[in-house]
């Protein structure tokens, strides 16, 4: 670990973080209401039909982001894509105020289209602001990731509550307004000109290898996270019923956030002043993930109230694990890719995660019947990946040492 000198975050970091926070608040607030709206008194859809539409909505975002990235990188530019996407997504939210099935489908289509333009391009533009100070990339994306999580939490809390309390139209209007406001910081930000970015000096084979490893490793992390969460969620339900701790039922659903916020702030400060390699952080993420799942494995199938503390400790380590994984994928892609095509690469980063989740989803019936099995798969898988990353770091350090020796 080495001290970072003469580098600092700028107002652009604040602008982009506010923008993504508002966009996530808009999107997750909208998402919290849309199924309730479909099965409510206005449209009176069946549960099966509403959930089918919801699944289509979330699945189609992966492909819309690829299309949006292509537009941003190759046709209209990243900044224009963000602004146009934000406006389209807002119109989509407003469309749902019209009480008809046609307006529903139009609104969902516009939300998907707008999100596809907005999300990969804002991540790309944010990353480009740090290409002349790559040691700060990890802390920058941690700030960005914190903003995403705060926006998601506030959106569900604020938009979801107001929509359910005062009517779905109020919720959709607030969602649309938040989306429009999210484009204002982008108007105020200058787009990073590619001719002012320092050229990527890494050999092409090293760049390709690091990007491929990041794709696969992060996809596997979320896959193992998903199969192990079956047991974690089961424990949450049981402990929320028997725990004597003064934790309201609705807070059990977002208890991760209690740990996520303070740990994120600590990590942001640490990574802003001290640098360690991105793959070292990934390795730590998997180690903390194994510790978290190992603690859960110690809790018996039918827990008692005394096991609540163990469960909360496991969530603490899981939050530390996620923090060392999720922001780093975008940091690695930004550092090693060609900035001209960064949005495209970022949009493709979602595919391994979805593909691995789809494959593991084929075994959901067995995992739901035996949630401990999913937990064991997560522990073994994360241990193997963690050991692999240790080996990759050792080989990289040896190659760096040999190169420096021969240069001397």
Explain what you see.
The protein is an all-alpha fold and 408 residues long. It has 2 domains: 7-189, Up-down Bundle (Growth Hormone, Chain: A), CATH 1.20.1250.20; 204-407, Growth Hormone, Chain: A. Helices cover 80% and strands 1% of the residues. It contains 17 helices and 2 strands. The radius of gyration is 22 Å and the shape is globular. The model is unreliable at 404-408 (pLDDT under 50).
Which features would summarize this protein structure in a list?
transmembrane helix; PTR2_symporter_CS; Growth Hormone, Chain: A; two-stranded antiparallel ribbon; mainly alpha; transmembrane; 2 domains; 408 residues; disordered C terminus
Order of helices and strands: EHHHHHHHHHHEHHHHHHH
The amount of beta strand, in percent, is: under 5%
- Reading side by side through the largest sheet, how are the strands ordered? 1-2
Identify the CATH architecture of the largest domain.
Answer: Up-down Bundle
How far apart are the termini? 23 Å
Which regions contain 5 or more consecutive residues with pLDDT less than 50? 404-408
Give the number of domains: 2
Largest sheet: 2 strands, antiparallel
Protein name: MFS transporter
InterPro entries: MFS_trans_sf, MFS_Transporters, POT_fam, PTR2_symporter_CS
Membrane topology: Multi-pass membrane protein
Main location: membrane
